[in-house]
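User: Before I run my own analysis I want an independent prediction to cross-check against. Here's the chain; please return only the structure tokens and, at the end, one sentence I can use as a sanity check.
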Amino acid sequence: MTDAPGMVEGGCRCGRVRFRLSGTPIFTGACHCRGCQRMSASAYSVSGAWPAEQFEVIAGEPVIGGLHGATRHYFCGHCMSWMFTRPEGFDAFVNVRTTLLDVPPADPPFLESFTSEALPWAKTGATHSFETFPPPESFEPLIAEFARSRAG
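Assistant: Structure tokens:
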């Protein structure tokens, strides 16, 4: 684990694949869609979006799993931990499963999506909730609000 300012590291369950993130996420979120429920074997997936240039795999070789189309989900080929996603149409960022960070975030996710598919007892404490995926025009103001919330 690094202790350099602005750097965090994480990895899969078995430790064969490790990654490093610099800076802060542009937002954090939880997704309640059935796909995330199935891939995480949980009520929702928890993640943070980092600019792609601030993400690097530093050990091991992740493999594509889950969906095999334009949206690419990456896993450890040994323990099969779902580690990160490169979403279709959003190549500028990487969506990292924040529960895999060496020190997971203590704050609740900033936004949650697909609450229309949420299990009735699954609550995240997110600041913003969306029945489906947030509309594209909402991201700029959400990202700005998330940055302001972390600054003070």
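Sanity check: The two ends are 27 Å apart (CA to CA).
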